[in-house]
Sequence to fold (121 residues):
Amino acid sequence: MDKELSPLKEVNGKKVFGINSSAISNESKNLGREFLKSMQEKGFFEGKRYGQGLTQVLTHGEAHSLMRAWKKTGGNLGDEVVIYVDRLTCGICQTGFPMLKEFLNLKKIKIISKDGSEFIF
Ligand SMILES: [Zn+2]
Fold:
């Protein structure tokens, strides 16, 4: 089922898959909570619980791709990350991704939708 595997990204030539929020496993939720904790230690999303308000960005496929890559690379994502998704990136992601970019010290995050449209943060 391509929806579950669809958002994927490349880091140093490695492809990392994400999943949609409807299919998120407990393991993935734990990764989301761990990531949120790291962000909160740096002052992002203060006082918010996982899945509350804008932290919902961390429950979406786009962020899951990014968090898996973060975990896999020990936090060294380089300067630029490209994420491919099978649908249009939602408003929460559009608002939340600039924060993820700042937290990860990335120069650029590009999200490319299936129809070819791009969001650049
Ligand atoms: Zn989203």
